[in-house]
Specification:
It is built from four helices and no strands. By secondary structure, the chain is mostly helical. The chain has one domain.
């Protein structure tokens, strides 16, 4: 998980620096997409840890999962609707972080 945190933060910093220098709307969409995906992956990791430990009930884990999904969906709808992000850029940024997350899990 530490590798994912460092690589994810590195990718977001690179997107941010490129966006500051170019002001490209595609890069802006990729930046916001990578941030949402990063938050999503950390939420997945937290919920997985809660599910694997027997301390929390399964109902609490279910509520946490539903809350995470609804918050991510609301933030995504807000970003896409009100900020007029480039959808291809947003999906590209979202996918890059997920691909890194999956590849790092496969490395174990």
């Amino acid at each position: 998980m530490k590798k994912f945190i460092y690589i994810g933060l590195g990718l977001m910093i690179v997107f941010y620096i490129i966006f500051l220098t170019t002001k490209n709307i595609f890069i802006e969409g990729a930046l916001y997409g990578s941030i949402i995906s990063y938050i999503n992956c950390i939420g997945i990791k937290m919920i997985t840890n809660m599910f694997l430990t027997k301390k929390k009930g399964k109902f609490f884990v279910l509520l946490s999962t539903l809350l995470k999904i609804s918050l991510i969906a609301l933030i995504t709808v807000f970003l896409v609707e009100y900020l007029s992000l480039d959808l291809i850029g947003f999906l590209s940024g979202f996918s890059v972080i997920l691909i890194v997350f999956i590849l790092l899990i496969q490395d174990k």
